[in-house]
Amino acid sequence: xxxxRAEKVAVVEEVRERFKASSAALLTEYRGLDVSALADLRRAxxxxxxEYKVYKNTLVRFAARDAGLELDELLVGPTAIAFVTDGxxxxxxxxxxxFGRTNPALVVKGGVMSGAPLSADDAKAxxxxxxxxxxxxxxAGGLQAPxxxxxxxxxxxxxxxxxxxxxxxxxxxxxxxxxxxxxxxSPDTTNDTSxxx
Length: 197
Hints:
Mean pLDDT: 81
Largest sheet: 5 strands, antiparallel
Radius of gyration: 36 Å
Number of helices: 8
CATH architecture of the largest domain: 2-Layer Sandwich
CATH topology of the largest domain: Alpha-Beta Plaits
Helix content: 55-70%
CATH class of the largest domain: Alpha Beta
Distance between the termini: 129 Å
């Protein structure tokens, strides 16, 4: 059986690797949540692409320092960490916010995203961002509108040219006699030699 020190070293290593492998990590206080509520929260976070883990604060402090993160002020009281592994930090923050609405015992303390610290207010603001799919759809719509306007402009150029040409012809009193007769003349009449005289 491993000695307690080796177990702690293994946990520190595990937490450090989770921090490095995650795009974000949101720290929460779960004091007051019963086992059933924690199971519901874990399920909601799993669906959002996150793993929700509880570790001893002292071990998380060591792991965070090893990973180059400064989280000491967040590691007070019972702390659980939502590591964003497969999902999007916005979706995970929204899942925490939504769960907290019906379970006020859950408190989001802050976290870290791409190595940058997040305050509790930052984490709340993150939950208010539109989902990635909505933002991409808006971007695509924003790119599509100018293209549609440009296509309309390209269609309007020949049409407007034709209208302008017709207006110019009408302003000049119509097509001159010679200009109208030339295209209408058939090749047979130019070679007609039956006229004498």
